[in-house]
Write a structure and sequence with these properties.
The complex is a heterodimer of chains A (204) and B (221). Chain A has 204 residues and is of the alpha/beta class. Chain A has helices at 45-53, 75-78, 96-103, 109-118, 134-148, 164-179; strands at residues 7-16, 19-29, 34-38, 60-65, 68-69, 81-84, 152-156, 183-187, 198-201. Chain A has six helices and nine strands; from the N terminus they run βββαββαβαααβαββ. In chain A, helix 3 runs parallel beside helix 5 (134-148) and helix 4 (109-118) crosses helix 5. Chain A is globular and about 50 Å long. Chain A starts with 6 loop residues before the first strand and ends with a strand. Chain B has one domain (3-220). Chain B is elongated and about 55 Å long. In chain B, helix 2 (18-38) runs parallel beside helix 6 (89-118) and helix 7 (123-150) runs parallel beside helix 9. Chain B is mainly alpha-helical and 221 residues long. Classes of the chains: A alpha/beta (204), B mainly alpha (221). At the A-B interface, strand 6 and helix 3 of A face helix 1, helix 4, helix 5 and helix 9 of B. Chain A: One of its GO terms (biological process) is cytochrome complex assembly.
């Protein structure tokens, strides 16, 4: 299957614990587009994002990235993708700065400091992550999004634990990413119709 | 993330969690100290039993350290990040084993002259012991890491890890102690070392891939 879309999901069938979560799910994301995954608790929002990210596999269906079938090997997609799940993947034993440098070693210290300033993390750069609040830890994970420069963002409840200011910053960040031609697929219950007009609705 | 940054920060995390490493080393020292007190402190007996005591201590220390090798990575979501990093997961696993091996085994090797003196180990067998540790312990780590990856999502999985791993540790233990005893008797021990090397190399080929598969299975639920 060939498509002009950057990411195409075709007839995806996902199950968890013997229960079908979604069957025959298809949608395409084009450059500069963001899609929101909607659905009640247990409808498979996280499972869908994990399947696309390559953490788990679908029962059936295909995933295409830039026209290439990546269903059995997600490596080409993962090179261009950043995934932020419920668990943030932030090392509590490391400082904020070490966490960012560990994840994005190719970024300069100046870039790293600028992002930390934008996210209000600059005063905590030398602090161990385990001493930060859940919201601040979420900001560290979001700082990696800024620094990663990857095209596709898969975000699972990215607004969780963030305060109002943090939420606004994330929206601005998503907007900037879309303007630069990036793709975003996120699950959230937050209304973001101004920047995300497309929804994937998962039924129970 | 790159392979280099992964390795550097793995060492850094281990340094910050040095209490875990220290516990494993302390456990080893306690085993070596308590054994003569509990059984016999006679030099001739200890010299004969030294390789067995030291190797049993090493095996138990490795089991302790391997049990929580992936626990924190699983709980904080690092395992998910490694899977989606686009880097080779088997290679990342190999680097993690390497970092853990260096951090646990190097201090053991440094302590070995003192501990072997405590157990009245003859000089002839000391170097055989060091060689068996250098050649055999990578195999123990590589075997153990598969069990740790399989049980990472299981609560209270310590017992399960031990049941899975311990039978696979027996050949390493037997060949290693046999090599030291052969050296002590003035016999050639290169055959035993070759067997240990073969076991470690076989683990090197199989373990990173099996561990990566087990990690994926554990994380995907």
């Amino acid at each position: 299957m060939q498509s002009s879309a950057s990411l195409t999901i075709s007839d995806l069938w996902i199950e968890r614990g013997g229960n079908d979560l979604c069957k025959g799910l298809s949608f395409s994301i084009h450059p500069g587009e963001a899609w929101r995954v909607l659905g009640g608790n247990g409808t498979g929002k996280t499972s869908l994002l994990k399947v696309i990210a390559g953490i788990s596999m679908p029962l059936e269906g295909e995933i295409f990235y830039l026209g290439q079938n990546v269903t059995s090997d997600r490596s080409p997609l993962q090179q261009e993708m950043v995934y932020l799940g419920h668990l943030m993947g932030v090392k509590s034993a490391l400082t904020v700065e070490e966490n960012l440098r560990w994840y994005c070693p190719e970024r300069s210290l100046e870039e790293l400091h600028n992002v930390a300033k934008d996210l209000g993390l600059f005063p905590f750069l030398a602090s161990l992550v385990k001493t930060l609040s859940a919201g601040q830890q979420r900001r560290v994970a979001l700082a990696r999004l800024w620094l990663s420069k990857k095209t596709l963002w898969l975000l699972d409840e990215p607004f969780a634990s963030l305060d109002v200011e943090g939420g606004v910053m994330l929206e601005v960040c998503i907007q900037q990413h879309l303007t630069s031609g990036g793709l975003v697929l996120l699950s959230t219950h937050q209304s973001l119709s101004s920047i995300i007009p497309h929804d994937v609705v998962l039924q129970p | 993330m790159t392979y280099r940054s992964f390795l550097i920060y793995e060492f850094l995390v281990l340094w910050r969690r040095k209490q875990d490493v220290f516990n494993a080393l302390l456990f080893f020292i306690i085993v070596v100290i308590l054994f003569p007190l509990g059984v016999s402190a006679e030099p001739a007996f200890l010299a004969q039993a030294a390789s067995g005591i030291i190797w049993c201590g090493v095996v138990l220390s490795i089991l302790i350290s391997i049990d929580h090798m992936f626990k924190e990575d699983y709980q904080d979501g690092s395992l998910e990040q490694w899977i989606v990093s686009g880097l080779s997961l088997p290679l990342l696993m190999l680097l993690k084993v390497m970092a853990n091996w260096v951090v646990i085994i190097l201090p053991l090797l440094i302590m070995m002259p003192l501990l072997s003196e405590m157990l009245f180990m003859p000089n002839t067998s000391f170097w055989a012991l060091v060689l068996t540790l250098l050649v055999g312990t990578p195999g123990l780590f590589l075997i153990g890491v598969m069990g740790a990856a399989l049980t990472v999502s299981v609560r209270q999985g310590t017992m399960l890890v031990m049941l899975l791993i311990l039978p696979l540790y027996l050949p390493v233990l037997i060949f290693a102690t046999s090599a030291v005893q052969a050296a002590q008797s003035g016999l050639p021990y290169s055959g035993f070392l070759a067997m240990l090397l073969a076991l470690s190399l076989m683990s090197l080929v199989v373990s990173p891939f099996m561990t990566a598969m087990a990690i994926k299975a554990s994380v995907s639920g």
